[in-house]
Design a protein that fits this description.
Blueprint: E1 2-6, H1 27-51, E2 66-70, H2 76-79, E3 87-91, E4 106-109, E5 125-128, H3 138-143, E6 148-149, H4 156-171, H5 174-189, H6 193-203, E7 216-220, H7 224-235, E8 239-243, H8 249-254, E9 260-261, H9 265-271, E10 274-277, H10 292-295, E11 303-306, H11 315-323, E12 330-332, E13 345-347, H12 356-376, E14 398-405, H13 410-420, E15 425-433, E16 436-443, H14 449-460, E17 465-472, E18 480-485
Parallel strand pairs: 2-3, 2-4, 4-5, 5-6, 7-8, 7-10, 8-9, 10-11, 11-12, 12-13
Antiparallel strand pairs: 1-18, 14-16, 14-17, 15-16, 17-18
Bound molecules: nicotinamide-adenine-dinucleotide.
Amino acid sequence: MLARSSLRVRATLTGGFHRHLRATAKPAADDIQLLQKLLDAAKEREAAAKAAPSVSGGDGDPSKKFQIQGFNAISQVGLDRFPGEQFLLTGSAGQVPDGVANEPHAVVLRSHKLQPDEVGSSVRAIARCGAGTNNIPIEEMTARGIPVFNTPGANANSVKELVLCGLLLASRGIIEGISHTKEKIVGDLGKDHKAIAARIEKDKKHFAGGELAGRTLAIAGLGHIGSMVAESALALGMNVVGYDPKISVDAAWRLPSAVQKAASLGDAFAQADYVSVNMPYIKGVTHHAINAEVLGRMKHTTHILNFSRAEIVDGASLKRLYDAGHQGKYICDFADEFMQEHPKFVCIPHLGASTAEAEDNCAYMAADQIIKFLELGQVVNSVNFPTAVLDRQAGDHTRLVIINNNVPGVLGQITTMLGDMGVNIAQQLNTSRDAIAYNVIDMDSFPQGEAADKLQLKLAELDAVISTRLIYTGSASEGPASFYTKGGH
Ligand SMILES: NC(=O)c1ccc[n+]([C@@H]2O[C@H](COP(=O)([O-])OP(=O)(O)OC[C@H]3O[C@@H](n4cnc5c(N)ncnc54)[C@H](O)[C@@H]3O)[C@@H](O)[C@H]2O)c1
């Protein structure tokens, strides 16, 4: 299949999404109310998407713009990144104007479980606003030569702030004191304010805590979130030890120098008054990484904060420890089968990244990555493609992007073929990741129309080539960006 589009676009949008959660004495009634609110919010978003103008700004022929198809309500901050002159937003983000073919070049989504048949042959890239990508059929997309992007670190500040809240919930009797006041004191004394005030003063001794300053926080996983937690904990006057066997160079640069290195996870736990778990959950690798042996090295009073994933901590072993008299608390952003009913368990309903700012940051980052991929062939933060950034040289060139199966000899075949066609290569980048090879080639010539088709069809004769794309720049930027996909996906 052969398709074309040019490099000018524009944008439309949908409203934001807000969650309202509140404590209640009548859980069933409020659950229904909450569900009703969520349903109303979903209906509002659907109506907003339907009512969205087909083109919401920016001049130019909509049929010559990159189409970005949204699933879910994508933050307005992200949608606004797409310049209206070059991008047309569709799906949940706007409508395809009458007379324009519905051919999305990229998909942007949040939690929508993307089915392979929702990804048409025109789609060149998929971006998930968030870190996890298990709602996207990655293997199938890789086989089709479609990069899938995520937004690592975009929600780190939101999670960090809730970790700080977790530290305070663990260090003071805040939750116990609030429950006691509400259920016991007010429950017993009704509206007698004087009696309530007196009883509060009398009972507060049961909920005393300790300061964080001077205590030791161990951080397991020093990536985006862990390094931010380290910085804030140091600012609170805590000592920080860190454990990260896989720390990246970038993460190491971000880390405050005052963080002490622990030799092992057990070593980190042994030194800690508080532990913050900020490593990823990887099946078979970090599953129950915090097991009976590691837990057994904790002091009798150490508190654990887990804002990563429940399965990293062996809940059954932790319960045994608490049942045997351990004094710590377990503050967790997820449910835990074994700890759920335990009085030492503080279960937060996965609120780590539930802020408007996190959604905005994720959408902003996803949009930027898609724009750079479509306009420059740049690949950054892909979960299935190699990182590929080739800076432009001065002057005008046509950028040829070729995605092929990573097998021997293909690069030589491509350059020979281009040479035979009289194409001079100004610069090129060839890189690979697992089964995928990715080439960015800047050509001195400007094949357009039939010449562009001929070039791409010729390249498609190579068995290993999955797709090709032409991107025009400089004085040639009026030309089309065409692409060829084999197999009619
Ligand atoms: N609660 C939430 O809503 C929420 C939101 C975002 C992320 N998260 C969780 O937080 C985790 C961390 O997020 P991030 O953005 O900091 O990720 P990140 O990839 O930037 O950092 C993870 C760090 O963990 C390290 N690591 C890997 N294996 C380890 C091991 N065995 N022991 C110790 N460290 C190890 C990595 O080297 C990396 O530095 C995510 O994997 C996710 O599970 C939760």
